[in-house]
Design a protein that fits this description.
Helix 1 crosses helix 2. The chain is built from five helices and seven strands. The radius of gyration is 18 Å and the shape is globular. By secondary structure, it is α/β, with parallel strands linked by helices. The strands form two sheets. Strands 1-2-7-6-5 form a five-stranded mixed β-sheet. A two-stranded antiparallel ribbon has the order 3-4. The N and C termini lie far apart (45 Å).
Length: 220
């Protein structure tokens, strides 16, 4: 599915564009790697939309975890990604500081994410629908012996595993404002091997597409 020579070429170009010769940060490494993979995965993702009968899963939360590790593992690209990051003076461990997609805060969101993973593994036509929160979780710290919560802006460095689809946008008039709702598709990759995740070389990859509906404007 992934042309590894093209992957390396794109990674080097994206990283050079982001860093301008400076030492890359973890978010920059993550962005370059994700964008390189999505460049090849996005066309497949577009074709993965269910045709005919399909199932939809609606949830207020989707806790998919760090997309980078799941997607690299399921595409069999962990070793290739390590080599790419090594060439930039880093490693996969450098991505530990990348934040999870904060699309919820509890077991309901994890269950919803597991449903999508399982459906992708079993090649079931399932699409997840939810809300793309800007501040889905909070950061906790202890100040003077007391818990302090701060807003967690999880997309401050971008969200390269997602692709916004304007053609699916809808507009709602709620006087005195106009709200425009756009759709974002997030890549959740899984191996198909007897219905379970596997890194077997004989496995094939399929895509489960989570379309996260979110409001990005409310003016007029």
């Amino acid at each position: 599915m992934i042309d590894k020579d093209l992957l390396k070429k794109d990674f080097d170009e994206y990283l050079a564009e982001l860093t301008d010769g400076e030492k890359p940060t973890a978010p920059q490494l993550h962005d370059a790697l994700a964008r390189s993979i999505m460049k090849q995965a996005a066309p497949v993702m577009a074709k993965s939309a269910p045709k005919g009968r399909s199932a939809s899963y609606f949830s207020a939360e989707f806790l998919v975890g760090r997309a980078v590790y799941n997607n690299l593992m399921c595409l069999g690209l962990l070793d290739d990604a390590e080599a790419l990051l090594n060439s930039a003076g880093a490693s996969l461990c450098s991505l530990e500081e990348i934040e999870d997609a904060a699309l919820g805060n509890g077991g309901l969101g994890r269950l919803a994410a597991c449903f999508l993973d399982s459906a992708a593994s079993m090649k079931l036509p399932l699409t997840g629908y939810g809300i793309r929160y800007k501040y889905g979780l909070f950061k906790q710290s202890i100040v003077d012996g007391f818990q302090k919560e701060d807003a967690d802006d999880w997309t401050k460095f971008g969200d390269p595993w997602s692709k916004r689809v304007e053609k699916d946008a809808e507009t709602s008039w709620q006087s005195p404002t106009t709200c425009r709702y756009s759709a974002t598709r997030t890549a959740l990759l899984a191996h198909c091997a007897c219905g379970r995740l596997s890194r077997s070389k004989s496995s094939t990859s399929t895509l489960s597409t989570a379309r996260i509906i979110w409001k990005h404007a409310a003016t007029r």
